[in-house]
Amino acid sequence: MAIRIAPLQPADATDWRRLWTAYQTFYGVTLSEAVFDRTWQRLLDPAHGMYGALARRDGGPPVGLVHWLRQPTCWDVHDSCYLQDLYVDPALRSGGVGGALIAHVVADAAGFGAAHVRWLTHETNAQARRLYDRVATRSGFVDYRIPIPR
Q1: Angular region, 102: left φ>0, alpha ψ -120 to 50, beta rest
Q2: How many helices (H) and strands (E) does the chain have?
Q3: Does the pTM exceed 0.90?
Q4: Which pLDDT tens digit goes with each residue over 30-72?
Q5: Which of 18, 62, 65, 80 could form a disulfide with 73 if both were Cys (CB 3.0 to 4.6 A apart)?
Q6: How far is CA 39 from CA 44, 54, 58, 76, 97, in A?
């Protein structure tokens, strides 16, 4: 089946929201309406450096989404690309959609001259990690965070 990846458009709001909500459910989090709205605004603003795309199979409804960010880095003269979110409908996982979404981000990153594409995943996300281990090299770094009180 043919997989088509296309950048987010204003008309994609309902489909994006459906997939973005499913992604949040997968990770057991609930985001506020303000976060949904602000994220959508950022994704549609080409000056923001935050990008998104949807995957469709055979011209049907979207079955996957990806978000990525262009980032400066102190480690190279070129920017880096951070693949922040990748989600594929559970019924279609291991069917090439995730790989196609990653390839789309890699092509975009190459287009803006990125030094590399990087991302994180949860250690328990075994199915996604099988794909990631095939297409990328693990960095060995461990992610740490300190929440900033609001």
Answers
A1: alpha
A2: 4, 5
A3: yes
A4: 999 999 999 999 999 989 999 999 999 888 899 999 999 999 9
A5: 80
A6: 9, 15, 28, 28, 23
